[in-house]
Specification:
The complex is a heterodimer of chains A (69) and B (558).
Chain A: H1 2-20, E1 26-27, H2 30-56, E2 64-65
Parallel strand pairs in A: 1-2
Helix pairs in contact in A: 1-2
Chain B: H1 2-24, H2 43-49, E1 53-55, E2 76-80, E3 84-89, E4 95-104, E5 113-115, E6 127-130, E7 144-145, E8 151-153, E9 158-166, E10 171-180, E11 185-194, E12 203-211, H3 214-220, E13 226-231, E14 234-237, E15 248-259, E16 263-269, E17 279-287, E18 290-298, E19 306-318, H4 321-325, H5 341-357, H6 361-375, H7 377-403, H8 408-422, H9 430-449, E20 471-474, E21 485-487, H10 489-504, H11 511-528, H12 533-557
Parallel strand pairs in B: 2-8
Antiparallel strand pairs in B: 1-19, 2-3, 3-4, 4-5, 6-12, 7-9, 9-10, 10-11, 11-19, 12-18, 13-14, 13-15, 15-16, 15-17, 16-19, 17-18, 20-21
The chains are: A mainly alpha (69), B alpha+beta (558).
Chain lengths: 69, 558
């Protein structure tokens, strides 16, 4: 499960992300954040953290430096 | 601003919840694969319960002459209605030809009508048999049509035509078609009169075959073609390659049939009086480029002197939301726009509504695009605004870039800190992108599969919104391009719009990424080169509006 998630995110980073342009308001980017969160906290908590992060990542939020807890 | 912010958040969140819920929590009902035990009742019970079985009295005059299955000369009866021309052969009482009067085969002026029964289907379609062959040779037996002429028409009301087969052991089989002038629905009663001295205990099998060759396989990758079934209130399209693993589906079969990208043939058991559909099954076969979808229904035991009637409705026609939506049955579920069906269907209905006001599907697509764009207008405005504000911090940013040239991590961190202090951010965020993704996919599927766009003209050279746009026609082939060959004018314009948009957007990232971004217009043009013009039109209009919005905001702020 964890491996699958990581592969999926890496695939997105290499093949899809370059096409859509720079979109993330944060550093690390949402995908990098997810990758780290899943590695650090496991797939369940990692995904939950990632979801929270993506929900924060819109024009009405300031963005900025926001590392994985 | 604050109120608008909250409203937008609410919209966005509800969409996310809706999509998320659809995706993760609604598990499709598992089709019941157990054999139908309920059917194995004793004869008395069946007699009490069944509405299909009754005594029948043989009256002199109606008894057909006993025809042997080997009768050589058989007729083909043609029936013409305002909607279609159908030809039913006395052999097997099967549908051998079905031409749609409102749909042509190609977009050419002198094109023949769209034919739903390909020549390769030698036995035709919608023929039937008994599963255990209780009446040998029934499938290809030669019936007698109770009509004097070989051609008739139904231009008002309805007309019933009976096909009768008397078998040598005394069982009479009838297939009674009722054609209606104003509907694609064809009622069909299958009647067994047991005049033999043995009881008949078997299952009825109605077949809807289809040609599934290499070419179909290729097409099916983009828009499904193949066997379809509506089982336990759930639409299923079955990839012929999966038939080897699982070829039987049972449960409450609403209908089953064979579907092309735009048209379908389906058999629908008529509901019994209490409105329930009947427990039944479908069994699929795939061999020699041919897929057969067999609807199988257990018949009630028919003792000598009894008559069994099984009622069906056949549908052969377009998968049009307007037409199928007007019928009060489950057939409208045949229009399935994939994973994002929940979003795609409303889009299709909205597009059809716009068309009813302005009867041009090209204009309808443009207006639909504007409508979608309007929903996301505040998001765009906000991010273009901050994009503009970026200019203010540009010098500071250059400084940081210079300072931390060798430490990318530190550089990014500093840049983000800069954004935070000056309350700017060039990116619009991941969420807007994520929310718009399902809408784009839904729209893509909708525009790819909507029969409404088939042969629907827009302006000038775009005479078919469902086909790739080609200006002029060349005789030589062009790499990456599928036939026909020509200048993909609209697609090139779309590519240009991508390029222009890229030029308008300041790139904050590193030069490597900037290079990648410049490749995107080319990439998009190549991908879209064989896509339906309707889809290209959407993308083009979407870009134009985005650029307009961006330009407007920049003008307003400077």
């Amino acid at each position: 499960m964890k491996q699958l998630l990581l592969i999926f995110i890496k695939f997105y980073q290499y093949f899809i992300s370059p096409l859509t342009g720079q979109n993330c308001r944060y550093f690390p980017t949402c995908s990098a954040y997810t990758l780290e969160a899943v590695e650090k906290h496991g797939s369940l908590k990692g995904t939950a953290l990632a979801l929270k992060r993506i929900l924060r990542c819109h024009p009405f939020h300031a963005g900025g430096f926001d590392p994985v807890p | 601003m604050d109120e608008q912010k909250r409203l937008l958040l609410a919209v966005v969140l509800s969409v996310v919840v809706l999509v998320g819920y659809q995706t993760f929590f609604i598990t499709p009902p598992v089709p019941n694969n157990q054999p139908q035990q309920a059917q194995n009742q004793n004869a008395d019970q069946v007699q009490e319960k069944s509405q299909n079985v009754s005594e029948y009295k043989t009256m002199t005059g109606i008894v057909p002459e006993t025809v042997t299955a080997q009768k050589k000369n058989y007729r083909t009866i043609s029936i013409s209605t305002p909607l279609y021309n159908i030809a039913i052969s006395e052999q097997g009482a099967a549908v051998k030809s079905f031409e749609l009067k409102n749909y042509k085969k190609t977009n050419k002026k002198d094109s023949p009508l769209k034919q739903l029964v390909p020549e390769q289907l030698v036995s035709g379609t919608l023929f039937f048999d008994l599963e255990r062959q209780s009446i040998p040779g029934l499938k290809d037996a030669v019936y007698t049509a109770k009509i004097d002429t070989n051609a008739t028409s139904v231009f008002e009301g309805e007309k019933t035509i009976e096909f009768i087969l008397g078998t040598s052991n005394g069982i009479v089989v009838k297939k009674v078609f009722t054609f209606k002038a104003d509907s694609y629905m064809i009622d069909c009663d299958i009647v067994f009169q047991n005049g033999s001295d043995m009881s008949l205990n078997d299952s009825l099998v109605i077949s809807t075959p289809g040609v599934f060759d290499e070419e179909t396989k290729k097409r099916s990758r983009f828009a499904f073609e193949g066997p379809v079934v509506f089982v336990n209130e759930e639409y299923m399209d079955i990839d012929p390659d999966d038939i080897e693993e699982k070829n039987t589906y049972s449960g409450k079969i609403g209908w089953s049939g064979y579907s092309e990208r735009y048209f379908m043939t389906a058999v629908m058991p008529r509901l019994n009086t209490n409105g329930d559909s009947i427990d039944a099954g479908v069994k699929l076969f795939y061999a020699n480029d041919m897929v057969t979808n067999n609807y199988i229904r257990k018949m009630d035991r028919l003792d000598p002197g009894q008559q069994g009637v099984y009622s069906f409705t056949f549908y052969m026609g377009p998968k049009s939301q307007k037409i199928l939506g007007s019928y009060d049955n489950s057939l409208k579920n045949a229009i399935n726009l994939g994973f994002f069906n929940v979003i795609a269907k409303p889009l299709l209905i909205t597009m059809n509504f716009i068309y009813s006001v302005i009867p041009n599907y090209g204009v309808a697509i443009i207006l639909l695009t504007i409508l979608i764009k309007l929903i996301f207008w505040p998001l765009g405005t906000k991010s273009y605004k901050s994009m503009n504000e970026m200019k203010k911090v540009q010098p500071l940013m250059m400084e940081i870039r210079e300072k931390y040239k060798n430490d990318k991590q530190k550089m990014n961190q500093e840049v983000m800190g800069l954004y935070k202090t000056y309350k700017v951010n060039p990116a619009s965020g991941c969420l807007p992108l994520l929310v718009q993704m399902p809408i784009f996919f839904a729209l893509y599927r909708m525009l790819y599969q909507a029969i409404e766009l088939r042969h629907a003209p827009f302006i000038g050279w775009i005479s078919d919104l469902s086909a790739p746009d080609r200006l002029f026609h060349f005789n030589f082939s062009i790499p990456m391009m599928q036939e026909p060959y020509g200048i993909p004018m609209l697609t090139l314009l779309m590519g240009a719009s991508f390029l222009l948009q890229q030029k308008m957007t300041p790139t904050a990232g590193d030069p490597m990424q900037a290079k990648m971004m410049m490749l995107m217009p080319i990439f998009m043009t190549v991908i879209f080169i064989n896509f339906p013009a309707g889809l290209v039109l959407y993308m083009f209009v979407n870009n134009i509006i985005s650029m307009g919005q961006q330009y407007y905001i920049q003008k307003k702020l400077s």
